[in-house]
Amino acid sequence: MVGCTLRRLPSVLSVLALAALGFSRAQFVSVDVRVQLKPGTDVVSSATALAAGRGKVVSVSGNGFVLRLDSPDHLEGQLEAISARKSVAKAEPLAPRLPGEGILHRPLGEAKQIVEEYREAYIEWAEATGQELESEEGEGMFEVPGLDYLEAYLQWKHDRAYPNDEIDYSGYTEIADRRTYSSALTREPQGTRVKEAWNFNPSFGLSGKNPGGGPTEDYAGMWEFMGPRDLAAPYRIYFGLSPVNGRANAVAFNPLDPQTFYIGGSNGGVWKTTDGGVNWSTTSDGWPLMGVSSLAVHPNNPDIVLAGTGDFYGGDVTGIGVMRSTDAGATWVRTGLNMGSSYIPGLAFDPDTPNVVLAVAGRTGGATRGVYRSTDSGQNWTEVVTTDQDWSYVDFGALRGDGTRTVWAVAGGTATIVKSNDHGATWTSVTSPVSGSVNPLHIAASKINPDTAYLLSTTNRKIYKTIDAGATWTDVTAGFPNGTGGTSTYNWSQGWYDYYIKTSSVNGQDMVFVGLIDVVLSVNGGSTWRNIGGSNYTAAYTNTAIVHQDNHNCAVDPTNPNHAVITTDGGAFDFVYNPASDTYSWIRLNKNLGITQFYTLATHPTNGDYAMGGTQDNSSPHSFGNLLQWGNPGAGDGAGCGINQTNPNIQYHSSQFHGLERTTNAWASSSSFAPSFGSDSVPFIGDLWLDPNDQTNVYINTNYLWRYKEGTGTWSARLGGTALSTSGQIRAVGIAPGDSNIIYTGASDGDLYMSRNFGASWTRLDNLIGFTNRSILDISVNPNNKNDILVAVGGSGPHLYRITGTDTPTPTLTDVSGSGATGLPNLAANSIARDPWQPETRWYIATDVGVFTTANSGGSYTDMTRPLGLPNTQVSRLKANAATGYLTAATFGRGMWRIKLVPAVVTGVSVSPTSVMGGDGGSVTVTIDRPAPAGGVTVPLASGSPKLHVPATVFIPAGQSSAQVAYTTDEVAVDENALVTASMGASASATVTIKATTDFAATAFNLLNATNISGGLPEILNSDDIRQTWQIDRIDRQASKAVYETVIGVVNPSKVRIEIEGSSSLSGVSYAVYVPGVTTSKTNLLGTGTLGATDGVIQIDLNNPSIYVGPSGQLQVILVVSGPPATQFTTRVDRVRFRVLP
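The chain above was modelled as a monomer; its predicted structure follows.
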């Protein structure tokens, strides 16, 4: 979450829609009012009277009480009425809170209702208290504190929760069970990309690295990591200092080496550093699913590392138990299968009996939630606390003098605290200082006082401390930094997502870290608190931020209590406290991590190193062509983005709720271009689409389709005046290549529309074909048939459909998801990319567990994820680019990747003619193995001789498999064979034979009806601008002619070429060329030519020279002015040459 703003604007589900669903107006969220009474007033009677008809009293303290209102509506008026009572000294509304119990895992409709109630309650509270919340630059205008990540998550969940308002995780667990793994670390020179050895279950259609003859035949290499590396923060407030990276949920130190520690990505697996975070490596890309919520390292044997799976904080990845390594993270084995799909947010080795390790399982409901214990360092697990609650953390306390040690475990939902003094074998309940429905609790045991522990309840916005092993608890929240600016509870506002409490020690007291939006520190056991996310005890939500806000975990160095590493939405950060000076320092550890979470993707038309995308809480990373150092021109949570494929300096990105920005100079400068959406339903993470035929048309989505015109800067709002989603928002837009009039849209409620007139009117398709009402996540139009589309959907069931005949009254719907072990997995299909060279048959499908491909139009699929080196993580977007040859994947947890597709291959080159006289030319034809993709293919072409000239490239138009270009040659002294070669994927060549000639000059000439003005035979020997000039004497019907003779000194020549080079004083005079035969008296007209004001050449070929060449080699040519000229003129002859082929 980065920044917030406050406006009463529509969002995911309107109040009217809630009422239509039958929900009460304030079923989950209410506003509390703290009422301070005047001295001498009876608290009980006053509270009872004030509560009547307004709400209920929830707590009494001193001379006041807290009143929970039945409804937040007209809060200002209610406050005025309460304050007007004679007994009331002051009435102050408290900022509303999201309900505590498991909002991520409530049914979708209920969670949406909570969001709406909270939004309305917060607006009422803000208006009543005069709050003015400022948005960070570039963000949309719909947020209130606490809803940032939640709105993104609920959009993600909406697209997957089907058919029962919940995500069916069976497809995830099925593929997790099918995937087996065996990974071995192999470092590459840059130290961040890792290769693994892996094997897949053959029942899933895969075996080793070349399943079904795939990778080596269909791809030019393996997937490679693009980044972001060394990612810049877009600005300092909220994001801290550069570099940043994606969300890290967990961290754990090697207990013997503080330079070695591990972090866990939300959907990015485990990363290890051995040099204090300068360099990182990972060996978890082959895990079946890659969410990590917790980490623990054996205290005596650091080769044993455990990772608790699932994304407990964000809910994006289900759990698969505990991953265990016995070689310091080089290889992993899956254990804890009895934990089911629960998330594992807490792991703790027993410091005294290190083979004992405890785990807590939470989030998903059911029998697998609880506290688990292993006595063999994590190989086998037994559930020791079976209470079905949202278990969230476990922590061991300090050792007592009698050798005992308390271990604590806590859960949210119904607030639950348990403890054990026998290494977790048996447990007893502890009275909680909080009650009712709460966010997940977090607990931290003192490392120096055996009976002391600290409890964090973000629902109550409280920190409690016990010094008697839980018998009593004291509120130590006084003075805690709650927030700045207009919202005094901002720091607590995402307490269901941002939270931890950890302890260390300093100067004989507990050092306590509390992670919320910002990280807060106490160095005296909770007596005082200070922000440390910025410099000099300031917060991360200020302009002095150092650490990216939104905290998730913290680990204290076992060898140095003043040293810790924390993890946030922006990666990992190293903290050192100096007790002597009461100062601290931070080091950012994110340069070489690879855990960024992308929502969207845009690629450059010709530069495969140039890409950008919108991300969760890290704006819009942009490589700018340098994969080792990424920029970040965006803001907030990144969303839709685009790069103009005609002029790539024109680009677009956006933040939440369509905070749209554009540039015409590749982000040297930029400007906002967001319109006012009125009452439209605007998605939290919106998208944008560029017309493939006219890149000046930019489309964005609400429940209507909007179009922006680049160049004019104008918006066409609500195209066609038709809401294209009944109860949701547009998620997908497909525009037919070659015809901008044909537009398809798909919505989050399954509505599917088509326009055939550039959006002027719309036809609904889903009700014509009985289509699903699941979220439509992508649409791909066949580039060869605009009435043939692929549609990808979320939810449960088939996930890819083909719809043909969209121009008919009854389109045809076909499930092309495949089936069984060779079908797509039963989970969301997020994005479709057609192979540029085989768009009809080969498709690439992005899913929540990787990329799958079909080569037979959806008949069967193979997994091109780990077999080709891509991590088993969620892939949000795919882009295939014929010009670069890359398929690019934006993942939600492992950054951006690409693979080189095998493009069309040159299969042949031919030339015509194959043999030419030097100086002549012909044509080259290049053939490839398949029709060229949209945009065509450019094939490099090269000559093997300086005497043979060809273009550097041959362009083959879209849909064609061959193209022709011209070649030329130079004259040669001896015959030469010259190669012409085309190279793309393979090389093919053809030979042009360049023939040498023997040249003869004129030995005599004569003029008829013309007068020689100057020059003679010597002047026509060479092409040297020294000329013979003759003039037409009479302008009448008498032809003027020049007769040139020579003697050919070659016996039986095969060809003779006559070349007459010259010019005329009149423009465009036509001449006829006659050659007398030697066996008859007939003079033969062999051709005509034109000479103009500048030199030209009249060329005549005698392909049967024996007819014209006499026995002694005599040859005569007659140049005749063709038709009487209009005026007297001169002919200037520079050279007469007879070229002879033997």
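Confidence is low (pLDDT under 50) at residues 4-25, 134-141, 181-216.
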